[in-house]
Amino acid sequence: MFNFATQIIKQKQTTYTHKMETTCKNYEKCPIYNGILKDKATTASNYRRKYCDAGHEGWNSCKRYLVKEKTGFCPPDILPNTFRSIDEIIHEMEMMQKLS
Predict the structure, then answer these.
(1) What is the pTM of this model?
(2) Nearest CA-CA partner of 25 in 61, 69, 63, 90
């Protein structure tokens, strides 16, 4: 027997799960949106579309995401498309930590 209410609930759960899987888990607390890009709405929107809301493909091209996955932290001044490699960023972080 087809239960319409059950079908609607399943559709909503699928939509919610799909949305959660396509948006970066770090997006809500990502400091670039409250820092570097605070007054640059167009640029922030473009970054979000290309990196934060693009699922695994977008996250795996985001230097912030990759550094945080490797170290548990990413400096607030790193943009997703920085020219520096992941290893360079981590090396800089290690050097800064030694200096402090």
Answers:
(1) 0.75
(2) 69
